[in-house]
Write a structure and sequence with these properties.
Length: 86
Amino acid sequence: MQTTEQATKHPFHETIVEVIGRASSRDLECLGALIKATNVPKGHDEIIAAWEKRRQELGWMPRQDLGVPADLLKQKQAGTISPYTV
């Protein structure tokens, strides 16, 4: 039986998209590090879209993407195998 807390929690790939959408520039840097250190099982395209949209809204240059889209695409192509997998 699920508790109320468990019922209100969402998968990482859904939550991160929402959080990216309201992130400050500094927050986005931290989220980028988190994403790159996390084994993301699905939602890669949605995360990349949210990342690119927010990056542009904050006025970041294309080269300032911190490698997040490339990392997510690599994970997607590899079936979410990450060097950080324990």
